[in-house]
Amino acid sequence: MTAKRVAVLMFNLGGPEKQADVEGFLYNLFADRRIIDLPWGIRQGVASLISSRRAPMARKNYALMGGGSPILSETRNQAQALEAHLNKGTGIEAKVFIGMRYWHPFIEDCVKEIEQWKPDEVVLLPLYPQFSSTTTLSGFEAFKKAWRGQVPVKYVCCYSDNDHFIDAHVQLIREWLKGKVGDTSNVRLLFSAHGLPEKIIKNGDPYQEQVESSVARIMAQLGDIDHVICYQSRVGPLKWIGPSTDETILAAGKDGKAVMLIPIAFVSEHIETLVELDIEYAELAEKAGVHVYRRVPALRTHKGLIQALGAEVMKALGMPGPVIGDHDCGKCHKFCPKRAA
Fold this sequence. Notes:
Layout lengths: L3 E9 L9 H9 L9 H24 L7 H16 L5 E9 L6 H11 L3 E6 L9 H11 L6 E6 L4 H19 L5 E8 L3 H5 L4 H16 L4 E6 L12 H10 L3 E6 L7 H17 L5 E3 L7 H16 L4 E3 L16
Parallel strand pairs: 1-2, 1-3, 3-4, 4-9, 5-6, 5-7, 7-8
C-alpha cells in the first residue's frame, strides 16, 4: 500500500537576507491589508513612505546580525527536523515546504513547488503558536489566493495550548532558572510577545487571549513565581496592548528584581529576539538597575516544539474539518478561519 503523500507548508514572516533587501521587505510588510487597514492605493503609498523612512535604522539593526535575518536558516532547520519526525513511523510520506509572507521564498512561490510534487493532501502550518489576523490569517489568505490544486487542504489555526509546546517552554525555563539565575526568590519572569494595536484586539482578534492562555498553562507547572506578560515591538502612533516590555523592565529595576525574559510568541531567533531583546532591552535593563537580565532562547528545533508541530499535522490529517486549533477560544471570533472554510 502506497503511503499518503502529505505536503506541509511551514510558513513564517520572513526577513531580509542582506542589506539591499531591507526596504523591500518592509514595504511588503506594511502593504499587507492585515497590517495596515486602508484602501489599496492609499495603503501602498503609506507602505512606501514608512518603509523608506524606517529602512536606514532597520539596516543598522540587521547589520548587528551580520547584515540580514537568520529566520530563513532557522526555518530550514525546523523544516528538516519536522520532516524527519513525520517520516518516522507515522504511515505517511511527508515533505515540508517553506513559505514566507513578506520575503523570499514567498508563500505564493512555495505553492507552485507543492503542486509540482503532487501531494494527496496539504497541511498549512504557521510558525505562530498563537493565532492573529495579522500573521496566521494573512498567511492563509496568501496561500488561498495562489492555490489552484484540487487535493484536500487542512489549516492549523493555532497551537498555543499544545501540551508539547507548553512542556518545551517549562523545560527551558527550569533549565535557565537553575543554571543562569540560581536563587529564584527574587526573579521576575517576563513573557514577552509581539504587540498589536489595541483596536485589532477590540475588533475580535484572539491573539492576546491565546498568549495569556499559553502563559497560564506554563505557570501552572512552574508554580508560584513572580511573572508578567508584556508586549514588544511597538511602532506608530496607535495605542497598543500592554504593558510594554520596556515599561515592565523599568518596573523590575525599580522593584529590585532579577529578570528572566521568555519569548513566548516567537519560535525562531530573529531581529525581535537577537537585537530588540538581547541588545536594546539588555541596555535598558542595565540603565534601570536590573542586576540580573537573562533571556531564554526561542524554542527553535527543541524536541518539544517539533513534537508539537508533528502532533498538529497528524491531528489535521485525522480531522474531518479543514481547520484545527489547540486553543478553545472563549467565543468564536470574527477572524476564525473556520468561517471561511
